[in-house]
Please model this.
Amino acid sequence: MYDPIIAKSFTRYDRKRLGCCAFIMFTITICSTFWPRLHPFTSTIDHGVNLPLSMNAMLEITSESTEVEMKKMDPVCRILEADADYCEMEGDIRIEANSSTIFLVTSAEKIVGNSTTSWSIQPYPRRGIHYIKKWTIKIVGNINNIPKCTENHKSPAILFSTSGFAGNLFHDFADLILPLYTTSFDFKKDVQFLVSDYQSWWLSKYHEILEKFTRHEILAIDGQKQVHCYKKMVAGLNFHQELIINPLLVESNQTQSSLSMSNFRRLMQETYSLKRTHAMVIRNTTGKGDNLTARRRPRIMIITRNRTRILMNHDEVSQTAQELGFEVVLAEAQKSTNLSRFARLVNSCDVLMGIHGAGLTNMVFLPENAVVIQVVPLGAMDWLAKHDFGEPCVDMKLKYSEYKIGLKESSLSLKYSSDDPVLKDPLSIHRKGWGELRSTYLENQNVTIDIGRFKSTLVEALKLLSH
Model:
């Protein structure tokens, strides 16, 4: 789902500094243009505020004791800051898969007249995607009209969907794997995953990672004829931001010290037996290959693409990198690529370079202090590049460098006249919505890098390896 472009460039903490009034007026204007499209941007709703997902207002509860009781009784269904449906519930929980309904049983007298007793959610971090199955959560006070348990479980459960944008490496990690890590962390593997919109190939591809999160059988919940019952359950995933764990959104003090991107990357190293924990340090950075440390040349992986945003002169880029002292690896990870093998190849490198796209997600496998070089396409894409890959580098303890292409380096300069809005006014294309932006600048643009200009970026990468 794609939310307002400019509004999504700011976190809740940034907006406080910008001023509430100015931001609200600006957001209203942008929202009218950019409402839901497909891209990894986050929402702006304050984290931690319980928002019923139906239109019914929650009843104000003035009694302190009653408020505590209701909080324990109600599923905590809310929209996270990152625009994800998220519910926590505890008690007598019954799942009727054929109606996609989760019942939470409580005594009838605890249901206050105007309080919300029903929520409709999508258990995937990006709301509003029409092909993700919706689930209903209901609080009921009478067990006579609800299904009886046929399978009782002692362990808690997490319900999530493997639909959405699964199959794109960026979304696999940003939407599913990292949020699963944060959501399941406190359960210490004693949790069962209930998968809606089940895709067996996805679970097979990432089974080594999933086994680090749960020791129980993963259940394809949609087709279940049994009524599965739990005492504790989470529906939806605790999603902070793309490839980022925000320590301010980690509620437990105990968790806060260990739930981090650094520890997530260590877990990836353990999962795929990645040997290198730190990138090599360059002792001499004159930019001449024969002056580099003779022990080993720093290795750079250049992510190639064969469908969109193709690097047309990757051979020239490779040759220049070799002349500067790099050992070059050209690679592209396909959907069918063996992830374990590819992760080890990435881990053997000190620099990862590529045009903005899913392939850069492989930076989760790089050794610490390695360098990520992102080539930013034409079309005012700086905000997107930084949000998706630039900002996450900080907590991953990686160095980040950026190369923004010029007009003549883009294939769009051959397709459009110099006064066309595509070249002259990219923001006018942005205002047409994510679909137009994606089609113009991401799906129909190739890059031919200016070697003379790009050489300084490679030299900068060598300098970053020296610190």
